[in-house]
Amino acid sequence: MADAAQTTIGRTTIDTGEVERFSRLAAEWWNPTGKFKPLHKFNPVRLAYIRDQVATRFGRDPLSARPFDGLRILDIGCGGGLLCEPLARMGATVVGADASETNIEVAKLHAAESNLTIDYRATTAEALADAGEQFDVILNMEVVEHVADVDLFISKTSAMVKPGGIMFVATINRTLKAWGLAIIGAEYVLGWLPRGTHQYEKLVRPEELEKALSAGGLSVIDRTGVTFNPIADRWSQSRDMDVNYMVLAERPGFN
Amino acid sequence: MAPSTKSNLPEQTPSDAATRTSFDVVIGGGNYVGLATAVAIKQARPSLEVAVVDAAPAGVWKKDSRASAIAAAARRMLDTLGCWDELAEEAQPINEMIITDSRTADPVRPVFLTFDGTVSAGEPFAHMIANVHMNGALRRRVDELGIVLIEGAGVSNFERRSAGVTIDLSDGRTLTSRLLVAADGVRSKLRDLAGIKVNKWDYGQSGIVCTVKHERPHEGRAEEHFLPAGPFATLPLKGNRSSIVWTERTEDANRLVAEDDLIFELELERRFGLKLGEIRVEGPRKAWPLGLTLARDFVGHRFALAGDAAHGIHPISGQGLNLGFKDAAALAQVIVEADRMGRDIGMLDVLETYQRWRRFDTLQMGITTDVLNRLFSNDIAPIRAIRDLGLGLVDRMPRLKDFFINQAAGVSGPSPKLLQGQPI
Question: What is the pTM of this model?
Fold first, then answer.
């Protein structure tokens, strides 16, 4: 494992001091009780939904050792690789994209430690789309509420979905309840996220998202709310889409 | 290693198993908890590489002369793990359980609680099985499933890093794993190496364990007599034999096991009675110090405790083994479900699911048995009156009795799938 880490770092042009900094950051990203605890808590519900939907759409057994074998998956805004690594373990060929060079170096370092092969790129979804990249599955998780132009962003990312492929979009609804829970609750009361992480006017309603997806040539095939149960200390799927929700869209293709 | 690395490596064939040094799960301790955990994981998830490391040299396990009470839930688990068919013939069903409270000298012991001993129609609430048979069946499954069993070498040290744990064995070998499970008993060395502290209560009591042969059949009846020094239990074995768990103050217990056969048998007869005719002690007798040991944490980074390493409880309610099987079932389920989502099975957030699941149940059982023992192990008249009344009341209230019998059968509370007889 140590050898693999050396090799991967060897391919980059980063000096040793930087490597130490990335190494500290990687430890922070991957500490389930640290700064990124809310993301770690959120991961199981997202992963279960992704695994089950991908298995259904591509006719795979979700309980097999590598249900995603042969599928090319893009994770937009991959951060430290919290979703990319499980996807790789499930057998997918994973491209992780993040605009932050630091995040990408952190993710590369950790993947090498975990002995996983993941294609991490410091780039934007727009640049990947312009380069004509195509994927079976695209994960567009918690990104649209941060972009300047939702319609343009969805149109660019939709273009990368292969015929018969699917895209997951997870975001936060623009409702009074979301303002109370996701902004006031999560940022100001619970301190789960830094203040200013989300701005109310940039939150996206499901109908706006679905309109943009249709314009991009995708059809919505599933949607679900995601809610937090404070007693069980766990996120789970729910019919309530007032705050956090996920939408699954497909590019009609074969058959 | 992680499944996704396999494409980069040459395919492992079964003959490579002996030389493999990197695993997904390494279990320290080759008793039934460690073996059951390994079998449960590997059966549900063959892609995970699992090893069991046992400090005892090969064959030592065959010298265990003890027998254990297997509650209905644990029996279902053994069935689901593919062990029960070969055990069924060796298992003695407990059809009836009698609990009484009396002084040793009382000529006739009042019968306070008679459990009919059935959990669901046709299912005995427990079976007695010789440890050697149970371990033999689990070891056969370990072999069949391709789990690596390392015998005669214990874990001497380990170091946890962010992505894995490096494990040094006493024979000089080094293994790597994503997760290390400590199933090495109540005085767990691995727990100490991990720096996990325990809360400990010493009862000053020891349990004398032995097997007796008697003239007449026991008809599958188990008895538990609450004597002033502590509980005295007889549990039916195959043939005209019973297993004895006999609690005394530690100095008395040590003195008794050291006595010659005649005196030991005489003392035993005073408690066992002559209802099954003449009795004779078979094989060794041994006194085990009793106490309640609870680990403050059941998990850490890339580390989990299971069985007595997490909780050593008083054997008063016969729950030690069944709690151990519950741990094995819960831990295996948590690991398998996380791996099916591609999650790193050694991460603390995965393991905390197991801790939340098991800790409350364990604490509750630990406290219940502790209170029962304190209540029963004395001869103060007013307390005797209260508990006699208590046991009589329990017998008259069907719902409370159901609660007790279901607790004894280990089927109450949220149950891991294996204990419900379902595969993970």
Answer: 0.85
Distances (CA, A) of B332 to B85, B323, B354: 22, 14, 9
Q: DSSP letters along B140-179, please?
A: HHHHHTT-EEEES--EEEEEE-SS-EEEEETTS-EEEEEE
The DSSP secondary-structure symbol of B124 reads B
Q: In which residue are the tokens 């991957």 written?
A: A30
- Collapsing DSSP to helix, strand or coil, B18 comes out as helix
**A116 contacts on B by Cβ (under 8 Å):** 2, 4-5
Please indicate whether, in this complex, the C-beta atoms of B1 and A115 are within 8 angstroms of each other.
yes
Phi and psi at residue A103, to the nearest 5°: -55, -40
Cα gap A18→A36, rounded to integer Å: 21
pLDDT tens digits, A185-195: 888 888 888 88
CA dist., res. B363 & res. B311, Å (int):
9
How far apart, in whole angstroms, are the C-alpha atoms of residue B37 and residue B227?
36
Query: pLDDT tens for residues B385-404?
Result: 555 555 555 555 555 556 65
For B142, phi then psi, to 5°, come to -55, -45
Which token pair is B120?
């669901």
- B191 vs B182: CA distance, rounded Å: 7
Is B287 in contact with B205 (CB distance < 8 Å)? no
- Answer yes or no: are the C-beta atoms of A98 and A122 closer than 8 Å: yes
Residues contacting residue B303 through CB under 8 Å, at least 6 positions apart: B160, B165, B179, B180, B181, B182, B190, B194, B351
CB contact under 8 A, B342 and A116: no
ipTM: 0.87
Nearest CA in chain B to A50: B341
- What span, in angstroms and rounded, lies between the C-alpha atoms of A120 and A107? 7
The contacts of residue B301 (CB under 8 Å, 6+ apart) are B160, B346, B347, B348
Judged by CB atoms closer than 8 Å, whether chains meet at B3 and A65 is answered as: yes
